[in-house]
Known about the structure:
The protein has helices at 4-18, 24-39, 43-58, 130-137, 148-161, 222-225, 266-284, 334-345, 358-362, 382-385, 388-391, 402-418, and strands at 78-82, 116-120, 141-146, 173-175, 178-183, 188-194, 200-201, 215-217, 233-236, 247-251, 261-265, 291-295, 352-355, 368-370, 374-375, 378-379, 393-397. With 422 residues, the protein is an alpha/beta fold. α5 (148-161) packs across α12 and α7 (266-284) packs parallel to α8 (334-345). Belongs to the PC-esterase family. TBL subfamily. One of its GO terms (cellular component) is Golgi membrane.
Amino acid sequence: MDSPLAAVAKLAGFYLRKGGKLPILIVAVAVFLLAAVLYGEDMRSLAEYSWWRYKALYETDYAPGDPFVPEACDLSDGDWVFDQDYPPYREGDCEFLSKQVSCLQNGRPDTLYQKWRWQPKNCSLPRFDARRMLEWLRGRRMVFVGDSINRNQWESMVCLMQTVVPRGRRSRIVDGSRIIFPIKEYHASIEFYWAPFLVESNSDEPEFHSIPVRVINPDSVEKHAAHWKGADVLVFNSYIWWMNDPRMKVLRPGAKNWTEHQEIGRREAYERVLRTVFDWVDRNLDPNSSSVFFMSMSPLHGRSMDWGNPDGVKCAKEREPIRNMSGVHIGTEMGLWALARKAAASTARVPVTFVDITAMSERRKDAHTSVFTMQQGKVLTPEQKAEPAKFADCLHWCVPGLPDTWNQLIYARFLSGRRPQR
Ligand SMILES: *[C@@H]1O[C@H](CO)[C@@H](O)[C@H](O)[C@H]1NC(C)=O
Ligand SMILES: *[C@@H]1O[C@H](CO)[C@@H](O)[C@H](O)[C@H]1NC(C)=O
Ligand SMILES: *[C@@H]1O[C@H](CO)[C@@H](O)[C@H](O)[C@H]1NC(C)=O
Ligand SMILES: *[C@@H]1O[C@H](CO)[C@@H](O)[C@H](O)[C@H]1NC(C)=O
């Protein structure tokens, strides 16, 4: 007999077999009371623990009636539809949301930006179901690797998922370049790893990366990858840091330190970096049990003339998505987009899913943090807010908001089988 709980269960089973008279409710109450006495405050976690153990034993991953998203459906082609049921959670309910993206708390007066649902032309995007996502992540590590936009997306994922962890038992662990949201009961974690160029660079220090001369080592990823080796789900991105200069400084072959660099074109460098990262993926991950995603370019909205608003100031006055994209050019570097898509499709062993968020995000001039954000550790002052031309951040996104939809795309791909298999 392995536990008192099992003992009661067996006893009850015995009575039932004998006479079948013992009402099931009484048995249940007896088991519950005994467990409550034994485990006291842990009762709630015990109940949850048993629940998922049960599910693991008796249910398959896939329930009938799941909305199915055909692989062939182009999720990147669609429209933003106003939906009163959005957002999926409230900003104030997301416990670990950083001040940087807590736009309402920072004084943003409108909430319209939270209420848009992405509607692909040819199929529907299923609503994000944290419980189901959690079932898939049980016993797994999901790691977002990239720059602050990817951290933005990681924050959204934590907000979407945090309700599955009871209040009071949620935590957030900062460990060097890693931030971890553990889901202990499920032996799972959702992590972010700071590597703005993916490969090694002189800007890898998570807190102090305002380096005047940025240099990358395009052929070397091992030092970072050691921190995500063994991850089951990897979500990569890398874009904004490439846009400072059309030429990139890369380490010379055989260089001893970051001062020994040479310049090559941005696209050439990007291609080399992708090759390094995807080669690592191909050599080090188990194609049968891991899932790899590469997020496409997240656009900037720095010039209101791009969408034909001569009265605008960067993204600061925008309250609605762009409805008609014809004749609109946001200026995203689509050359990098094409390189990333091609590289993602050309791994030999481990499939990489290219998640195209670019076109849908280009429409969301309204969704940036703008002046409702922080700078150098402080929320912008009223004086700074009054100067959006100088202070508006038209790069990062409010949460809840657009990054929730990016995560919904990953969720949809999980639904159609791109999740790690057991
Ligand atoms: C919609 O789906 C159908 C059938 O799968 C396909 O033939 C068609 O090209 C798709 N259209 C768009 C706009 O994706
Ligand atoms: C970097 O290497 C160069 C050439 O080997 C050397 O002259 C320089 O002092 C080194 N700089 C640092 C900071 O170590
Ligand atoms: C992946 O699964 C296939 C089919 O079940 C099997 O033949 C193959 O050896 C597996 N590969 C690895 C790396 O485990
Ligand atoms: C979008 O704008 C273009 C040019 O400005 C116009 O010709 C077209 O009719 C518009 N489309 C819609 C759906 O409004």
